[in-house]
Amino acid sequence: MSDSSLWESVHQPAYTPPDKRMVIRLGVRDVAASAPFYRHFLGRPAILENAERAEFVADDPAVRIILTRSAAPKACAGHYGFQMQNTRFVEEARQRLLDSGFKLTNEDDVACCYAIQTKVWAADPEGNRWEFFVTTESEADEGCGPECICHKELDRTYAA
Q1: Fewer Cβ neighbours under 10 Å: the N or C end of the chain?
Q2: Does residue 87 belong to any structural domain of this protein?
Q3: 154: how many CB neighbours lie within 10 A of its CB?
């Protein structure tokens, strides 16, 4: 049985997955406490959810996020992000997350990573930081120094 056939038979019989999908596996203390964040963050229910694991699959962006229960999880030392095509998509993500009760940090036209970007940030219950961003100018004098938001602790969202 091909990988595609296995996926279809287990998850969605009439579903054809995209050609490429990023998979991110995160260890969490409590799957039930973290799953609502990702349900609202991705705007879709888990395809599998129990006390040990929750899996979320989205096609836009093509990502599969798997939460697994861990006694001692570690938040990512960096962050995760979705680069958007334009500011309208960042604003749509911002509004959708606000409507879901997320604690957000907004940055408009900031110099970061040697570019000018507009961003919206959220952190999950474990402290993993996520951004939706668009690069509006490809060159800036500033990189990503210690004062950059990329390195700061953000308010965590515990979605209901």
Answers
A1: C
A2: yes
A3: 19
Q: What is the pLDDT along the chain (160 residues), one digit of tens a residue?
A: 444 444 444 555 566 767 889 999 999 999 999 999 999 999 999 999 999 999 999 988 899 999 999 998 887 888 899 999 999 999 999 999 999 999 999 999 888 877 889 999 999 999 999 999 999 888 877 777 777 887 788 999 887 7
Question: Which amino acid makes up residue 13?
Answer: P
| Run of H or E including 133 | strand 129-137
Residues 126 and 85 in one domain: yes
CATH code: domain of residue 60:
3.30.720.120
Same domain membership, residue 91 and residue 51: no
**Does residue 94 sit within a domain?**
yes
